[in-house]
């Protein structure tokens, strides 16, 4: 696909010798003069810029206009984000002078130019999110609520972490992992030998004695109320296992995550929230899923908002560049998604 797009672009570049080109006022006035009377005119400069990098600047101007017209209430939020982001970056570089030097080396001429880049990127991100949400139907929300929304549960865990360092050999790391898992399995064995009525107390005691999660061990390993997306991705396997348990049950096997080895105990369940109360979070989740799954949603969203305001590029050469710009974006995003 990429080769095809490049080939089509090459053909288009050969065919741009004629067409409609807007006349600039005073287009023949000199931008540069020479002592023999020769000059470089405004029109010549425009043509040179157009043939090189004009489309990039033009798209920035277009999207700034389109998105500010479409989302006027979001402008202040975007500007606030830009200032906060810039201040953090400036502090990280140790001052404006050092930051400007780094930006210049990256081909960005000024602080204001960089802020414009941050601003338009933030506005574009918001536009894509809103577009993605608009693609979600009530039926989509209802289906997700029925099949995927669950009530909160309360879970406790005991974490055993392998004692490894960066300097260890692979064999030493494997030995440390083996030792940690054996420790977790020995704790699991103690639970199996405990009467059901005493499980909650025994689990809390073992967590205080053995867990290496400093944030929860003194609370008997209690993670509190959790749901599918409450904890970080490191806990995905733990959460999945917890939802397969009933209240008062512990995990029959040691659970392995990026953090180490876990034994979990489910203590309490809650009814899931109503559909009405869940709609907002479901909409955000489904929109996030759409953006992650559909590589072209970025292009579709921005193209949609441009069309809504009746955007038309009057210069036929730039029209052609824009058409292939869109095709190349789609091809690039699709290729990245498939890698």
Helix count, per DSSP? 13
Q: Largest sheet, if any?
A: 4 strands, antiparallel
User: Which stretches of 5+ consecutive residues score pLDDT under 50?
Assistant: 1-19
Number of β-strand runs = 6
Helix/strand/pairing category: alpha+beta
Shape: elongated
Mean pLDDT across all amino acids: 88
Percentage of residues in DSSP E strands: 5-15%
Proportion of helical residues = 55-70%
The radius of gyration is 30 Å
Strand order of the largest sheet: 4-3-6-5
Number of domains: 2
Along the chain, the helix and strand elements come as HEEHHHHHHEHHEHEEHHH
Amino-to-carboxy terminus distance: 14 Å
Describe the secondary structure blueprint for this structure.
Layout: H1 2-14, E1 30-33, E2 39-41, H2 42-52, H3 54-70, H4 75-93, H5 96-105, H6 111-134, H7 138-148, E3 153-160, H8 170-192, H9 199-210, E4 222-226, H10 236-243, E5 255-257, E6 260-269, H11 275-293, H12 297-308, H13 316-338
Antiparallel strand pairs: 1-2, 3-4, 3-6, 5-6
Helix pairs in contact: 1-13, 3-6, 4-6, 6-11, 6-12, 7-11
Short description:
It is built from 13 helices and six strands. With about 350 residues, it is of the alpha+beta class.
Describe this structure in words.
This protein folds into 2 domains: 2-137 and 281-338, no CATH class; 151-269, Chitinase A, domain 3. Helix content is 60%, strand content 10%. The chain contains 13 helices and 6 strands. The protein has helices at 2-14, 42-52, 54-70, 75-93, 96-105, 111-134, 138-148, 170-192, 199-210, 236-243, 275-293, 297-308, 316-338; strands at 30-33, 39-41, 153-160, 222-226, 255-257, 260-269. It has a 4-stranded antiparallel sheet, sandwiched between helices. Strands 1-2 form a two-stranded antiparallel ribbon. A hairpin with a 5-residue loop joins strand 1 and strand 2. Helix 6 (111-134) packs across helix 12 and helix 7 packs across helix 11 (275-293). The protein is elongated and about 100 Å long.
């Amino acid at each position: 696909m990429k080769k095809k797009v490049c080939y089509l672009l090459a053909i288009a570049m050969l065919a741009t010798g004629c067409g409609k080109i807007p006349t600039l006022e005073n287009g023949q006035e000199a931008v540069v003069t020479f002592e023999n009377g020769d000059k470089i005119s405004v029109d010549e400069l425009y043509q040179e810029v157009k043939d090189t990098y004009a489309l990039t600047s033009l798209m920035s101007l277009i999207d700034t206009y389109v998105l500010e017209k479409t989302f006027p209430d979001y402008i202040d939020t975007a500007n606030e984000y830009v200032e906060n982001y810039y201040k953090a970056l400036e502090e990280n570089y140790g001052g404006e002078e050092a930051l400007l030097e780094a930006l210049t080396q990256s081909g960005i001429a000024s602080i204001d130019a960089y802020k414009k880049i941050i601003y338009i990127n933030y506005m574009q991100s918001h536009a894509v999110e809103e577009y993605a949400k608009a693609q979600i139907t009530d039926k989509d929300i209802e289906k997700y609520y029925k099949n995927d929304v669950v009530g909160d549960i309360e879970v406790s865990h005991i974490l055993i972490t392998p004692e490894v360092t960066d300097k260890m050999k692979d064999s030493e790391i494997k030995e440390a992992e083996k030792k940690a898992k054996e420790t977790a399995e020995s704790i699991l064995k103690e639970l199996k030998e405990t009467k059901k009525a005493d499980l909650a107390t025994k689990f809390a005691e073992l967590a205080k004695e053995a867990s290496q999660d400093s944030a929860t061990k003194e609370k008997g390993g209690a993670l509190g109320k959790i749901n599918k997306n409450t904890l970080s991705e490191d806990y995905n396997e733990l959460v999945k296992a917890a939802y397969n348990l009933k209240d008062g049950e512990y995990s029959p096997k040691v659970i392995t995550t990026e953090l180490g080895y876990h034994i979990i105990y489910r203590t309490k369940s809650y009814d899931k929230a109503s559909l009405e109360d869940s709609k907002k979070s479901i909409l955000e989740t489904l929109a996030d899923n759409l953006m992650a799954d559909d590589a072209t949603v970025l292009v579709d969203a921005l193209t949609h908002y441009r069309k809504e305001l009746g955007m038309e590029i009057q210069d036929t050469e730039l029209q052609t560049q824009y058409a292939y710009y869109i095709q190349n974006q789609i091809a690039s995003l699709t290729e990245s998604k498939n890698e």
